[in-house]
Write a structure and sequence with these properties.
The chain crosses the membrane at residues 46-65, 85-106, 134-157, 206-225, 237-259. The protein has 323 residues and is mainly alpha-helical. The protein has 13 helices and four strands. A hairpin with a 2-residue loop joins β1 (31-34) and β2 (37-40).
Length: 323
């Protein structure tokens, strides 16, 4: 089936736009899609405020429940899985609220970044360099399923929206750039600027908050499935199963893709060094740093990032099991 779809797709743009339309359906962000471009909308300010207030309300309710359990202990004590569920909700709601506020404060930069990424893809398509990968199609399909299924599962348990869909970012595929002299150097420089724009929008602390929240929520989901799968209600079991599965896909999928700019830019810079040209071009190549998508606090996504995050999830899970 995938092999039949691939010839029909000459660009990643339809995939990205489809996921974006589903992700911003509730108008929780200060921008929307119109004719294949992201534009800022001020008419959704009330909807964004409502979304933030709803998140804050759920956050306060979950926090109050935890504080009540600690300050006014009951006998018998509440089961462990309820604590885990509340901690999961607190961390997730905090991350969602921080992300919405961050995007709202940097709405112009975010829209410029998204449209620039689309423009780079369109230019690559016009030059015949556009590549549609199978894993990207699968990731978009899983993301759309997550946007639809996880809120439904959470609603069945009594929460309006316990988690939000993964947000598309401008992870750049530098592998489509061919070493063709000055033209290639210009393309590489354009992609490098796009990487810098990404780092300017998704800078510290928002990236640290998102990665840390994903790590903690994945560990919470695995802990509940391992220790309490026989006693938790069925909707909660489905919720944590879906959360554990989709967050694992995020760790080994998008986080791995976000390492491509660094890994492939290093390979391209080595290829540029052996390229024939004037001394000025060689000096220009030496001045190009590798493209890096920031991870926060001086760190960046590289080939080992997914493995490191998986290791952190396992370490946190073991800590929970030993408590």
């Amino acid at each position: 089936m995938v092999t039949r779809i691939l010839p029909l797709l000459s660009s990643n743009i339809p995939l990205v736009l489809s996921l974006s339309k589903v992700s911003i359906f509730l108008n929780q962000f200060p921008f929307t899609l119109k004719k294949g471009k992201f534009i800022i909308r001020t008419s959704t300010k009330c909807q964004r405020l409502t979304a933030i207030l709803a998140i804050l309300l759920h956050f306060v309710v979950a926090l109050k429940w935890v504080l009540d359990q600690w300050l006014y202990p009951k006998s018998p004590a509440s089961p462990i899985w309820k604590y885990v569920l509340m901690y999961y909700c607190i961390i997730l709601l905090e991350a969602i609220g921080a992300f919405i506020v961050h995007i709202s404060l940097l709405k112009e930069e975010t829209v410029f970044l998204l449209n620039s990424a689309l423009q780079v893809e369109q230019d690559s398509k016009m030059k015949g360099n556009s590549i549609v990968h199978v894993y990207y199609i699968l990731f978009i399909a899983l993301s759309i399923m997550a946007v639809i299924l996880i809120p439904i599962t959470g609603f069945a348990f009594g929460c309006l929206r316990p988690c939000m869909p993964p947000t598309w970012t401008s992870a750049i595929n530098l592998g489509s750039v061919k070493t063709e002299g000055i033209r290639c150097l210009r393309t590489y420089r354009a992609l490098q600027i796009l990487t810098d724009m990404h780092n300017s929008v998704f800078r510290h602390p928002i990236m640290s908050i998102l990665v840390g929240s994903i790590t903690a929520c994945e560990s919470f989901a695995l802990y509940t499935l391992i220790t309490s799968s026989a006693v938790i209600p069925f909707p909660v079991l489905i919720l944590f199963t879906a959360v554990g599965f989709y967050l694992f896909i995020v760790i080994i999928g998008p986080f791995k893709i976000m390492a491509n700019p660094f890994v492939q830019s290093v390979e391209l810079l080595h290829a540029f060094e052996s390229m024939k040209g004037s001394k000025l071009i060689k000096r220009l190549v030496k001045s190009f740093p590798p493209s890096k998508l920031t991870l926060g606090v001086g760190r960046f996504f590289d080939r080992a990032t997914s493995l490191v995050i998986c290791s952190q999830c396992v370490d946190l899970l073991i800590t929970f099991l030993l408590m």
